[in-house]
Design brief:
With 58 residues, this protein is an alpha+beta fold. The chain has helices spanning 17-26, 41-49, and strands at residues 3-8, 34-38, 54-57.
Amino acid sequence: MAKIKVKQIKSKIGYPEDQKRTLAALGLRKMQQVVEHDDNAVIRGMIEKVKHLVSVVE
């Protein structure tokens, strides 16, 4: 399966709790942190919810 890298590019401070939990579920805790996930619909949905806080490298 294809992999994608997700990088947190903006702070979660000041954003709703559900968006903070989405970042935590993606495995992102710090700014500039990069995590790798399988490219599937679940992960894509999570990325879509916090697209203003992350960048994606396919």
